[in-house]
Amino acid sequence: MNPSVSQPVEQLNETHVVQQSNGWEQLAPGLERRYYRPDSSFGLTSFAALRIDPNNFYFRVHYSPGSSQTISQWRTQLQGAAGFINANFFDEHDSVVGLLVSDNISYGASFMGFGGMFQVAPDGFTRIRSLIYEPYQGEPLQQASQAFPMLIVNGEPTYERTEGDRASRRTLIGQDSAGRIILMVTNGLFGMRLADLSAYLYSTDLDLRAALNLDGGGSTMLSLTAGDSITIPSFDAVPAVIAFYPRS
User: Fold this and answer.
1) What is the pLDDT of residue 223?
2) Of 47, 60, 160, 187, which sees the most CB atoms within 10 A?
3) DSSP reduced 3-state for 209
4) pTM (two decimals)
5) Where are the domains of the chain?
6) ∠ CA 116-84-170 to the nearest 5 degrees?
């Protein structure tokens, strides 16, 4: 059972931002914020990033089948969440594409031979895995969100395909060598191609071991209410989000 989160969120909202020498701002223990800007060849493209320690926060995947919601509607629904981003791709019926697991309940069907998955195991262990190198075998999961493509696998850039690749707003979820979860979204209207994003992530100091591209474009969304709020609204309402909550 997930712990109560209402009181910890109040405490987080009172936390002062601490500027660190490595460019990250500590918003609360285990929660940091930073902005990344690629070189001048990508014009006005920039990213807002959150670095979250699973020892201080736990993750839940939320789904509203057949009923996409705006960022303000999700915020109203997820009163205890410290923050969230949009999750799976979805179809015209507002049904997720790929597998989604929300509080042990599964929806959809797993991708086979492509894509990746953010997952929380029944024991709470949180990670990102490539479905090419580690296919889903139907094992029980507490939370899960699938998308494509993988951008970083085993610390190396993995997406180089340029055919059909175009610049767009991006949402991604990654994990560094310390096990911390990185949430990262385009902060503005100017995005990147997936191949360029894969290479860029590898060039940064994020120390990513894995990174998965989530639904982008008009779906890109980030909400942070803990410590120092951030609101990056999507153009389109979305039916699924990945949220994180402080441990009490």
Assistant:
1) 98
2) 47
3) strand
4) 0.92
5) 6-246
6) 55
